[in-house]
Amino acid sequence: MTGGPVDPTTTSAWSDLADLAESLEPDLRAWFAEDDGRVERLSLTAADLWVDLSKNLVDDAVVAALLALAEQTDVLDHRDAMYAGEHVNVTEDRAVLHTALRLPADASLEVDGQDVVDDVHSTLAEVYDFAERVRSGAWVGITGQRIRTVVNIGIGGSDLGPVMAYEALAAYRQSGLECRFISNIDPTDTSTTLEGLDPETTLFIVASKTFGTLETLTNARLCRTWLIAGLRGSGALGPDTEDRVAVSRHFAAVSTALDKVADFGIDPANAFGFWDWVGGRYSLDSAIGTSLVVAIGPERFAEFLAGMHAMDEHFRTAPPAENVPLLMGLLNVWYTNFLGAQSHAVLPYAQLLHRFPAYLQQLTMESNGKSVRWDGTPVTSGTGEIFWGEPGTNGQHAFYQLLHQGTQLVPADFIAVANPAYGLADGDADVHELFLANFFAQTQALAFGKTADEVRAEGADEAVVPARTFEGNNPTTSIMAPELSPSVLGQLIALYEHITFVQGAVWGIDSFDQWGVELGKQLAQALSPAVAGDAEVAAEQDASTQSLIAYYRKHRR
Ligand code: F6P
Predict the structure, then answer these.
(1) Which ligand 1 atom sits nearest the alpha carbon of residue 283?
(2) What is the distance in A from the centroid of ligand 1 to the CA of 545?
(3) Which residues contact 332 (CB under 8 A, 6 or more apart)?
(4) In angstroms, rounded to a whole number, what is the distance separating the alpha carbons of residues 248 and 266?
(5) Nearest CA, atom 1, ligand 1
(6) Where are the strands (E) in 70-166, listed by range?
(7) DSSP letters of 257-282?
(8) pTM of the entire structure?
(9) What gap in Å lies between CA 549 and CA 557, rounded to an integer?
(10) Interacting residues of 66 by C-beta distance below 8 A, sequence separation 6+
(11) What is the 3-state secondary structure (H, E, C) of 470-527?
(12) What is the best residue among 91, 92, 96, 155 to mutate for testing ligand 1's pocket, by most ligand atoms within 8 Å of CB?
């Protein structure tokens, strides 16, 4: 990219938005009462998603100013540059092409002299073939038994996406074939995840973009040790057979660093590559999704990719005023930079999306939690908000109190599907309808509240009227889809990827690097000897760290 980023705060749109925020008197009750067309104007379709923005704290003037801000900060030019394979990841000098991972096979996109669509589809073919062999039982372990459990070993983007999607698409999994996931270097994770597994029917997938991540490589070694010990212990691996024979039947890997995969001892025939233009948190749709392909099958995975592509096309082609990721990204800018919001809740009313907020935390916060712009200059405005959430209705009985009556502004996205994967009736009541009634009730209560007079009319004692009053005007976006199919899941993920992109583009930051995670990694390496008892290294640490290490050394058994 040439030139520095536009400073958003110097644009006329920014000044207009500041003025609009200053004079804003949010009144969703009045806005709805006075404007019959509000819901229709602010309800949009993106692929199979139906998105109701009407309960946000915006009027037409705010929406127009936000769209002007996007224009004045060149958001759509940045979008086109990203899709075209320009090196929009400036600090790592890389293209950013997760959108190319879901291009159809007959598309073509040349980047840095290479047709990436060909590369993507030939790797997909390898992953699909591997997955089919595992699913059909053609792939057997060292004793000739079919695989019953696939254990994905990865962390961050090499874990959160696969876990989230495996959970979300539970209804599409092949029965008799389970996936488990190990991510944390806390040895408890590996110990408990391996519990009850039979080495003869277990296949590990080591997923790591860099193949240099401490947690993943440590866990991979632990799993290899567990495998070999188990197989030797049972006699499945005889004394004359080398470990690598078992590893080749029970270990596969996914990485951009295939040389390191080979060094680790994994058979290159079981290794699937991807490319440095896929960020870790954008990689579920690359070979990093291999465990998901095994679970749901190539056909469903192709539907998942097609769903992502449909959202990519929407973002690429929909006019700005109807462009859902653009508008949702701009709304987040509105709340963060003009209305003082610090966090953003994502509240799925779909139990199977229970890991979606955790997945989005990496996507949004690793992307936009930055305080310098892509040219190295300081940001000129607040950037990434804290994303968090839990599925409804559980959250209702935990933190919704703060959403309804607290002092913080927390914009929230509610997500639900019309048809649940697993429906049940309670007598005559369709339980999913009870569930959805909660979704609709919550967004209604948050928007319109309950006045003191309404509380009095219920006969409340005057002394408790304030405590029982709801101010309302808490902004929400409602996202609905027919069902949580692979395609719809892909659409949701791509929607949030593009929302994240829009925010980063407005703020002028590189949403695709993650230097902020490096310092802690370096320090952990440096501190390890001290934790293990090296007094000299311990003495070099600050006083607090020394005392924490001392506590550990004293209490360890
Ligand atoms: O530490 C952060 C990070 O680099 C993430 O961006 C990435 O998803 C994760 O670590 C795992 O990295 P890898 O896939 O290279 O093991």
Answers:
(1) 8
(2) 26
(3) 344, 385, 411, 499, 503
(4) 6
(5) 517
(6) 110-111, 114-115, 149-153
(7) -HHHHHHHT--GGGEEE--TTS-GGG
(8) 0.97
(9) 14
(10) 13, 17, 58, 327, 330, 331, 333, 334
(11) ECCCCCEEEEEEEECCHHHHHHHHHHHHHHHHHHHHHHCCCCCCCHHHHHHHHHHHHH
(12) 155
List, for residues 119-162, the tens digit of each pLDDT value.
Answer: 999 999 999 999 999 999 999 999 999 999 999 999 999 999 99
- Name the nearest CA neighbour of 391 among 438, 424, 346: 346
Give the residue carrying structure tokens 């009850």. 196
- φ/ψ region of 196 (left if φ > 0, alpha if ψ in -120 to 50, else beta) reads left
Return the exposure string of 221-257: e unless at least 16 CB atoms fall within 10 Å of the residue's CB, then b: ebbbebbbebbbeeebbeeeeeeeebbbbbbbbbbbb
Tell me, rounded to whole angstroms, the distance of Cα 486 from its chain centroid: 15
What is the reported pLDDT for 113?
85
Ligand 1 and 123: CB distance under 6 A = no
| 514 ligand 1 Cβ < 6 A | yes
Burial of 150 (0-12, 13-18, 19+ CB in 10 A): buried
Q: How many residues would you count in the chain?
A: 557
Exactly one of 195, 397, 518, 536 is catalytic; name it: 397
Cα angle, residue 98 at apex, residues 95 and 103 outer, rounded to 5°: 115
Please tell me the residue having the least CA distance from ligand 1 atom 10: 156
Judge if the beta carbon of residue 209 lies within 6 A of ligand 1.
yes
Residue 325: count of CB within 10 angstroms of its CB:
24
Task: Find residue 89's DSSP bridge partners.
Answer: 94
Question: What does the block give as tokens for 65?
Answer: 């100013």
Residue 460 and residue 468 in contact, taking contact as beta carbons nearer than 8 Å: yes
**pLDDT tens across 163-187, in order?**
999 999 999 999 999 999 999 999 9
Average model confidence (pLDDT) for the chain?
97
CA torsion, points 132, 138, 140, 144, in degrees to nearest 10?
A: 170
Q: What is the Cα–Cα distance from 540 to 519, expressed in whole angstroms?
A: 17
Q: What is the mean pLDDT of residues 440-444?
A: 98
pLDDT value of residue 1: 55
521 is catalytic: yes
Residue corresponding to tokens 């929302």: 499
Check pocket membership of 94 for ligand 1, CB cut-off 6 A: no
